[in-house]
Design the sequence.
C-alpha cells in the first residue's frame, strides 16, 4: 500500500496547478513567488527579492564549489578539499542558504509550495548542467518513510526529476534507502553531532545494487550544511560499487574559508 503520492503524481499535480496559474495570469498580473509583488513573468521573483538571493558562481573551489572572494586560477581547490580526501568528485550548489533564500526554501520544503519547484530547478540547472549531463543515474536523498508520510513528498526527489528532464539521466529513488529514522539535521548544533546522527543510516538494498554498480551517480538534496548527510549517502553508494559520486544541492550554508 502506498502511503504517499509518488513524485510523478506530485509533478502532475504541479502541472495542473501551473495550468490554473496561467489562466489566472491572463486575468491578473503574476506575483513574486516570495513577496507577492507584481512581476513581469510568472514563476519568478521581483527585482528586490532577486537581489536578496546570493547566487553561487565561479570563482569557486573546483571540487566542493565553495565560492572564492577572487579568482585564484583554473582548477584550484580550497583548503578543506586539499586537507582531507573527499568521497565526491564534485559538489555544486545554486544559492546560499541565508535570510534572502530561507523563506522560499522552507516554503517549498515544509509548506506544500510545489509551485516553487520550476524556479528552484532553473537555478540549480545553471550550476549543475555538466554534472547531470555526465550522470547515469540521479539519486535524491531519501526520507525515512515516517517523515515522508508526514511531509507527503520528498522535496529532493522533486528537484531531481526537474533536473533530469530532457536529459538521458534517470532518477532512481529506489537505490538508496534511509533505514532508520533520525533527528532532523537542523536540530544538530555541531558537525560532529550531524555526522553521528546519520552514520550507518543509508544503505543500498541488494536488489538495487546492479543499478548502482559501475554507474556515475549524482546525489540531489535541498540544503547542504556540514555535508554529513551527502557524505553518508556517498559512502553507501560507493560501497555498492558506484563508479563515482557527485552532489548537487539547491542551497548551501556558506562559511568563511579556512585556507
Sequence:
Amino acid at each position: 500500500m502506498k502511503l504517499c503520492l509518488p513524485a510523478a503524481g506530485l509533478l502532475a499535480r504541479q502541472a495542473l496547478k501551473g495550468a490554473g496559474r496561467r489562466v489566472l495570469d491572463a486575468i491578473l498580473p503574476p506575483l513574486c513567488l516570495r513577496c507577492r509583488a507584481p512581476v513581469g513573468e510568472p514563476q519568478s521573483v521581483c527585482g528586490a527579492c532577486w537581489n536578496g538571493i546570493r547566487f553561487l558562481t565561479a570563482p569557486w573551489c573546483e571540487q566542493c564549489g565553495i565560492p572564492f572572494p577572487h579568482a585564484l586560477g583554473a582548477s584550484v581547490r580550497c583548503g578543506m578539499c586539499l586537507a582531507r580526501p573527499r568521497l565526491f568528485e564534485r559538489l555544486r550548489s545554486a544559492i546560499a542558504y541565508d535570510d534572502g533564500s530561507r523563506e522560499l526554501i522552507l516554503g517549498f520544503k515544509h509548506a506544500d509550495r510545489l509551485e516553487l519547484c520550476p524556479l528552484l530547478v532553473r537555478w540549480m540547472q545553471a550550476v549543475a548542467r555538466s554534472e547531470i549531463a555526465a550522470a547515469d543515474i540521479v539519486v535524491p536523498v531519501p526520507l525515512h518513510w515516517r517523515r515522508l508520510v508526514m511531509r507527503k513528498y520528498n522535496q529532493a526527489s522533486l528537484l531531481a526529476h526537474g533536473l533530469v528532464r530532457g536529459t538521458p539521466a534517470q532518477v532512481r529513488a529506489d537505490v538508496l534507502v534511509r533505514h532508520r529514522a533520525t533527528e532532523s539535521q537542523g536540530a544538530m548544533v555541531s558537525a560532529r553531532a550531524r555526522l553521528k546522527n546519520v552514520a550507518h543510516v543509508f544503505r543500498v538494498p541488494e536488489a538495487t545494487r546492479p543499478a548502482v554498480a559501475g554507474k556515475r551517480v549524482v546525489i540531489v538534496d535541498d540544503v547542504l550544511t556540514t555535508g554529513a548527510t551527502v557524505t553518508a549517502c556517498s559512502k553507501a553508494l560507493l560501497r555498492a560499487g558506484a563508479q563515482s559520486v557527485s552532489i548537487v544541492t539547491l542551497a548551501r550554508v556558506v562559511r568563511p574559508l579556512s585556507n
Notes: The mean pLDDT is 87. Strands lie at 91-96, 137-140, 170-171, 177-178, 202-203, 216-224, 244-252. The domain at 55-252 is CATH 3.40.50 (Rossmann fold). The first strand starts at residue 91 and ends at 96.
